[in-house]
Amino acid sequence: MTDATGSVDHGELNNTPMPSRSAMLCWLLGLIVFGTVGLSVLGLAGRYGWLSDLCNHFRFQYVLVLGVTTIGLVLLRSWRVGLVSLTGLTMNLALVAPLYVGASDSAELHPDAPRLRVMHFNVNTTNTNKDGVIGEILTSKPDIVFVQEVNDRWLSALEQGLKGYEQVVSAPRTDNFGIACYARVDDVGESYTNPLSIDSAHRFDPTDGIAQVPVIEVMGRFDGRPIALLSIHPVPPVSAEYHRARNATMRAAGEWAAGQDAPCIVVGDFNATPWSAAFVELADTGGLVNSQRGYGRAPTWPAGASSLGMIPIDHLLHRDELVTAERTVGAANGSDHRPLVVELGWGAED
Known about the structure:
By secondary structure, the chain is an alpha+beta fold. It contains nine helices and twelve strands. The strands form two sheets. The protein has a six-stranded mixed sheet with strand order 3-4-2-1-12-11, with no helix packed on it. Strands 5-6-7-8-10-9 form a six-stranded mixed sheet, with helices on one face. The chain is elongated, with a radius of gyration of 25 Å.
């Protein structure tokens, strides 16, 4: 206050109480909570816009952040904001938790049927560690491997290095959307018969020019039974135009799966996490099961980041006549993606 002469009483100003550390911490945690919950809710509208769709990719990270803030706010006895944090945590847990349950067990697999080992690897067009990538494929020993982001240099390296494999079909490009498929035909020093016999394979754009990126379709027989495989690599949804194109490819993949009389597989770099509306639509339309179910988050991109910062955008979905026997994520070997290897078998009831 001021005295009669108009001067300020500095002693009284100095006695003005400052916010406590706990109050400041509550304020900071509140900002984090409302920001994270806001992004979580915005992601639910992902089908309507590309920015909101991007918010879907980080559900696991939202769980970590909101788990910490909920504990912190409870300890600070900030009940109202703590309840908001707990609500957001519960919402995101409900989306993430299904990936950790429901893995197939041996009883669901046909006991005498062979396994089909499928590999998907986005190798990164600019990756110079071609020997490392080839070594990863040879070590994994897939019966069929789909390789994405290949150009002519990559095809040349793969042709020379993939001993025991032959090219099924390829569509090299100078951008990041070249694609190729190889089937295993031999195993040096060991007898080997591929359980997958290929009848036909071709590349095409299932969106009639909307996305302008190729997919690969392989038709064949697995253990004598018809099977169809589709490898896709939609564009990343980093703009409204790319979001529409990505969704067009995934919608077409779902319609392709729904139109198959034979059991089928859709595999690739989807540029979408399992929480994306486009991913859910693909699975629902095609009647497909996510092989990731029961194997947890299993992130694949970006490979150079901390595991906590990575997200799962490389996937394999299959019809329920097939059962996931094993699912692993390999080493990137210079790519920005980690490869995916899934071993499948016929269900015991089929």
